[in-house]
Design goal:
It is built from 8 helices and 16 strands. The protein is α+β, with helices and mostly antiparallel strands and 253 residues long. The strands form 3 sheets. Strands 5-4-6-7-8-9-10-11 form an 8-stranded mixed sheet. It has a 5-stranded mixed sheet with strand order 13-12-14-16-15, sandwiched between helices. Strands 1-2-3 form a 3-stranded antiparallel sheet. Strand 1 and strand 2 form a beta hairpin. It is globular, with a radius of gyration of 18 Å.
Length: 253
């Protein structure tokens, strides 16, 4: 990790074009302190600090992205968030995503629904991509899949009403749960990018899967999410171009 000079934001480059700032670290420290104050036995998986064991044998693990959209934050683009999810075993049970720029708080619990600022959200039905408004993210950590992604993007683009790339996957998923977007797709994200958002989308009536339609998106990092009809069509289009196994082979070469 090398330090980038000339910044009062405490910016460091973890790897090429992947940054961490003082705000990331301070946010993560504050979140972890709050979790351990309330649940000292629970475990934590956080973007900057990695895995931390709690004081007990609890099945619960909190998955924390203290500042999703760091590059946006550093460049002054007002699209970033704090994302916190909790899982018991392999099941996501609680989620919270805060968009501080718009003062939007998204929350969800397993079986309890999804909410935006305390008001329940439900996704409206749509039978396919025609007229759909989508979000995506470029696979900058999986550049070997750029051509595959570009082919997939083209096929989605010609059917959808519009696609936006905003630069913070957790917030894209939060706004998908609220119906601002009707679907989201991206390759090879980290668990903290999608853990909380995946529960929000499901609790709002959406579908979330990996590229094969399975439930290994937290493990694999590739995700399709959205309104059931939109998700179904995304899955069909992805099937023309790749699979989880194909992507593994492509990126390991």
């Amino acid at each position: 990790m090398r330090h980038l000079g000339g910044s009062d934001l405490g910016v460091e480059e973890k790897e090429k074009n992947d940054f961490v700032s003082r705000a990331d670290k301070e946010s993560e420290a504050a979140v972890i302190a709050c979790i351990y104050d309330a649940f000292p036995a629970h475990h934590i998986l956080a973007e900057e600090g990695g895995r931390r064991a709690g004081t007990g044998e609890a099945d619960y693990e909190w998955i924390v992205d203290p500042l999703d959209g760091t590059t946006n934050y550093l460049q002054g683009v007002p699209f970033f968030c704090v994302s916190i999810g909790c899982r018991r075993g392999s099941e996501m049970v609680a989620a919270a995503i805060l968009d501080p720029q718009r003062d939007d708080l998204f929350t969800a619990s397993a079986g309890g629904g999804a909410y935006r600022n305390g008001k329940r959200v439900r996704l409206a039905p749509r039978e396919g991509l025609d007229g759909a408004f989508l979000a995506t993210g470029f696979p900058f950590k999986a550049r070997g899949a750029a051509d595959t992604y570009a082919a997939l993007f083209r096929d989605v683009f010609v059917e959808a009403r519009g696609i936006r790339r905003c630069g913070a996957a957790a917030l894209d998923l939060a706004y998908t749960s609220a119906g601002v977007f009707e679907g989201f797709f991206e390759f090879r994200l980290a668990p903290w990018d999608i853990a909380a958002g995946s529960l929000l989308v499901r609790e709002a009536g959406g579908v979330v899967s990996d590229l094969d339609g399975g439930d290994e998106y937290l493990k694999k990092g590739s995700i399709l999410a959205g309104v059931p009809g939109v998700h179904r069509r995304l899955l069909e289009i992805v099937g023309r171009h790749t699979s989880e196994a194909d992507l593994d082979r492509l990126l390991s070469g």
